[in-house]
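Quick one:
INPUT:
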């Protein structure tokens, strides 16, 4: 009897463990592959330890944009060097909106710029390797995506 109850409890424990692991695992056949998501707080308040004002940050954004940096690069510099986690919390606007209000926004959107850059790199590769069919197909996909984005 004891052997039966022990083996039964072991089987129950294994079933419970399997149920727990399936609850913890992410969706396998869904767009979201895992459980990790961006956890930004809903409170748009400035941290107490940050001593700079909104105008100081805006002036710094203008200076970095005049040097030729893109909005993501500006955000990385502000985050790493100056301790500004989210510019939106400090200034009330995103970096691109701040630059548009001053007339310093880049001419091309960021995603379109990088797609054009990628297509040019693959075209350069195809000049050297004409028989690379995978690269040819990739260029077709990228160019169609560029045309799709150019509509907007």
């Amino acid at each position: 009897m004891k052997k039966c109850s022990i083996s039964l409890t072991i089987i129950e424990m294994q079933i419970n463990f399997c149920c727990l692991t399936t609850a913890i695992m992410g969706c396998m056949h869904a767009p979201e592959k895992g459980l990790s998501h961006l956890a930004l707080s809903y409170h748009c308040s400035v941290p107490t330890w940050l001593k700079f004002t909104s105008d100081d940050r805006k002036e710094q954004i203008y200076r970095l944009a005049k040097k030729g940096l893109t909005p993501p690069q500006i955000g990385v510099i502000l985050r790493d060097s100056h301790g500004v986690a989210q510019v939106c919390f400090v200034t009330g606007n995103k970096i691109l909106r701040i630059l548009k209000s001053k007339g310093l926004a880049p001419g091309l959107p960021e995603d379109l710029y990088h797609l054009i850059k990628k297509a040019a790199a693959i075209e350069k590769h195809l000049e050297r390797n004409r028989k690379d069919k995978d690269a040819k197909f990739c260029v077709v996909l990228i160019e169609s995506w560029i045309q799709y984005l150019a509509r907007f």
